[in-house]
Amino acid sequence: MCERATSLGAAAALDRSSADYDRLLEESGPYEVIVDCAGVGGSEAGTRRWRFSRFVTLSSPLLRLTDARGLLGGGCAAAARLLADGLSAARTAPAPSACPPHVRWAFFTPSADDIDMLHRLAERGRLSVCVERVFPWWEGVAAYERAARGGARGKLVLDFTAERTVSSC
Fold first, then answer.
1. Fewer CB within a 10 Å sphere, N or C end of the chain?
2. What does residue 57 show for φ and ψ, rounded to 5 degrees?
3. 142-161 pLDDT, tens per residue?
4. 94 contact partners, CB below 8 Å, separation of at least 6
5. Which residue has the higher pLDDT, 97 or 37?
């Protein structure tokens, strides 16, 4: 994967399976932005001694907390969590700075215009998606089990155009 990342223009790539990954990750900064797409959440920002300006996670507890505690209680609990994550990140930063690192949540909303833009980029060869495996639709359970194991090296895709053949005996 490191070779693929650098071939696509990454300035550097780290191998997550290497024994010194954590050390290299912390030493390779400073990072302007760390985007958490793996679901570790904002609390991860303060667990390492890395240098960054912003840690953006797509795993916000806001919806889960408002479902559990109601709009007001959940909103307050989520705000407290965000503040705690930001303070933890600032406290564990390797060196004090004028603008301490902070944690943010990002939310995704689908947009037809954005999907069209991605389509155009893909047609021009400017966007590619790494696919680990394509499952025919009838193997949905196997696809779900593979996703639950984690560590996929690409997308797992269900193919709803595949035709299931039924053999007659």
1. C
2. -115, 145
3. 999 999 998 888 899 999 99
4. 49, 50, 51
5. 37
Report how far residue 20's alpha carbon sits from residue 118's, in angstroms, rounded to the nearest whole number.
36
| Token representation of residue 153 | 């090296």
Q: Which two tokens stand for residue 121?
A: 């980029």
pLDDT tens-digit map of 4-49: 788 878 888 888 888 998 888 888 888 888 888 777 888 888 887 7
